[in-house]
Structures are given as C-alpha cells and as structure tokens.
Amino acid sequence: MAIEPWNYPYYQLARVAGPQLVAGNVVLCKHAPSVPQCALAFERLFTAAGAPAGVWTNVFATNDQCGALIRDIRVQGVTLTGSERAGASIAEQAGKALKKVVLELSGSDPFIILEDADLEAAIAKAAEARLADMGQACAGVKRFIVVGKERGQQFLQGMKVIFESLQAGDPADPKTTLGPVINERALHGLLGQVEEARKAGATVITGGKRVDRPGCYMKPTILTSVDANNPLYLEEAFGPAATLFVVDTEAEAIKIANATTFGLGASVMSDDVGHAREVALQIESGMVFINGGGIATPQAPFGGIKNSGFSRELSELGMQEFVNKKLIRMRA
After folding, report:
1. CATH number given to 109-290
2. How far apart (Å, rounded) are the C-alpha atoms in residues 110 and 256?
3. How many CB atoms sit inside 10 A of residue 129's CB?
4. Pairwise CA distance, residues 5 & 62, whole Å
C-alpha cells in the first residue's frame, strides 16, 4: 500500500510503481485528496498498456479507512511519503499489524559552501536548489551554511539579487519565474513561520511577504540571525524561504548542519571533491550531494534518517524493501 503526497503528483507514483512492479508486487495507492485526477490518469496508463486488473489500484480513503486497509491481511507492506505526523501515525498502525513500512518524511537539508568552492557557481546552484518547485520538496535545500565571513556576505548579496529578480505570474507562461505555493493554508503557514522567526530575533533580508496579486504567491525569503532558540532553527519551511548561517570554520558548518531533528539530504560545495567527501561523511543524513542540490534518479537509493524517516526508495535497495528473502538449504 502506497500513501503519496500532492507534490510531484505523477512522479511520486512512478517511483513506487517502478521498483515494486519489478519486484513482482502489486500496488494499492491512496493518493493525496488534492490530486485525485492524477491518480485516475496514472491508473488509466496501466489499463491502456494492457496490465492485468489489480496491478495498480487507486483507493480514495479516509485516514481511518487507511488504518483498516493496513490491518488487512492482503496488504503486506506500507510506504508513505509525507509529514512527520503522518509518518508516526502510519508507522504505529503498521507496527501493530506487524507490517513492513518505508517512510520518506520531512527534511531541512543544509547546503554547505566550503572555503574552496567556486562562489558564483555555489550561488546559482543554491538558488536553484531552494526554489525548485517553489521550495515545496522534502529534499529541497532549506538552510545555507557559508564558511568565511566575507564570502558569506558575498553569497547573501548574490542570493538576494536572484530572489528579488523573480517575477510572479501564470505558471503556464514561460516568462513566469515565480510560481505559487499549493494553497492559502500553506501560504499563511509560511508567512506565520517567518513572522514567528522575526519575533524571536531573526532578520528578514528579503521577502517574507505575500505578493500583491491574485493567487497564493510568496516573495522568496532569506532570513539570517536564526539562533538555536528560534523556532525556525528546527522547523521545516516548506516553500520559498531559507535561512542563512555564516561561520568561521568547517567544523562549525558541520555542527550546524547536524543540529536538526531531520536527516534527509545535504549538499556540499567544494572545488576539491575529495575534501567534499570527507565533509559528507560527517553529515548526519541519508544522502549527501556534492556540488549540487538534491536529485532523485531511478538507479540511486533515496531516503533519510532521524525524523526524515527510514528505509529506501528507488534503485535495487528500493526493490529489496518489499521482497521476502527465503533460505532453502538442501542436505544430501
């Protein structure tokens, strides 16, 4: 059984279908209630391809009904992509039913720019990593960490220029460079997080406000002076908002990167790949991307640790999550 979110509404289904069908499993899918047409369209593809009935089945169920499905003996395992709250609930229900569960949850991924990194390249990649899908991605970069005070100021100015240059508009218009967030609730939540962070001492360098136009648009936001007592220090900002930390040493950068309850992905920018790998080994996350933001590919495992979940999707590891391994031992 797959419980999937609204962001990337087709891809989230494909990343379940691929590995599990290769493994020989069939899938029962409970998609997000905001994208039912995507779920139906995906199922039609299987029908058009001639797949037998039951290979992929959509269910439009309430949370309570999901619990009943998890308990059903025909369901052998559960995979969920979603929030910490949803993950804790599903894990509890799957545990009671003694069912295997894979959880891909929230993240607050750090993006570390080391002293030997090309700063211009880092600025361009950092902006792309934060604003892809308007920041509404679990493995999107949420925290920038720059080693070196002077480089930190240069990075901030570069990011500010990019963030303030984006133009809100119709997402279907090629000229649009700033899209909306998913709905009013998400927008008000983000604006509330920024305001609470500001009250706790953060400085809003740019953005932090709604765009004055129809739709759920938020100005891309950068916050500094977010210390360990600030609520945003540990929260995930699921939208076009990021925090910036400027430190003196690499050790400080690693410490801040790990000072989170999340552990999904992380990025390290450096002109010395060997050096970047040494730093990557010290970061507490399921994935580290060197010289770029997080990306998922079919051949690479995807998943996190800590409150970002456990087990893996995609690749051979994703196929193995829901495969029973059997020993048959012959004696002469």
Report:
1. 3.40.309.10
2. 8
3. 25
4. 14
Rounded to whole angstroms, the Cα distance separating 317 from 122 reads 31
User: Has this prediction a pTM greater than 0.90?
Assistant: yes
Domain ranges of the chain: 2-105+308-321, 109-290
234-285 pLDDT, tens per residue? 999 999 999 999 999 999 999 999 999 999 999 999 999 999 999 999 999 9
CB 147 within 8 A of CB 250: yes
Nearest to 232 by CA among 200, 264, 184: 200
CA gap 222, 219 in Å, rounded: 10
Write down the catalytic residue from 4, 104, 235, 250.
Answer: 104
Alpha helices in 139-210 (DSSP H): 149-165, 184-199
Residue type, 83: S
Give the residue carrying structure tokens 């829901």: 322
CA 116, distance to chain mean position in Å, is 27
* 104 is a catalytic site residue: yes
Give the three-class secondary structure for 271.
coil
164 is an active site residue = no
Catalytic, out of 138, 216, 250, 313: 138
Q: Which CATH superfamily is domain 2-105+308-321 in?
A: Aldehyde Dehydrogenase; Chain A, domain 1 (3.40.605.10)
Cβ(224)–Cβ(205) below 8 Å: yes
State both tokens at 35: 């994208």
